[in-house]
Design goal:
about 120 residues, alpha/beta, two-stranded antiparallel ribbon, 5 helices, about 35% helix
Amino acid sequence: METIGKGLIIVEDEPLISLMIEDIAHDLGWLVVGSVHTEEDAFRLLGQCQPRVALLDINLGLTTSLAVASSCQDRGIPVIFITGYTARDVPSQCGGAPILAKPFSPCDLERSLKRILTPENSAA
């Protein structure tokens, strides 16, 4: 599959879930340019690459990914939040970013990626 321009990062504190997301993304033709488990490592990764999309778990144990999402937004990187939260529990700071509820299917992730990358959504 074609992966040019299809690099993404994953910020997920649960290693097994992170591996599952990596596998699904790869099967969908995406290149995972980095997968990290903490807010600190996410900022370090963003300093090293310019992904096309960021997949962020909201809750990272003792911290959240909301500051990472803000940094991505400042850099024009679309964000998809992947979370176990219900819709009413999602922090208001998530704004209009798509929310993909765990558990999700490969088709769910593919739909979210297509939705966030449509021209009307990707113009920042």
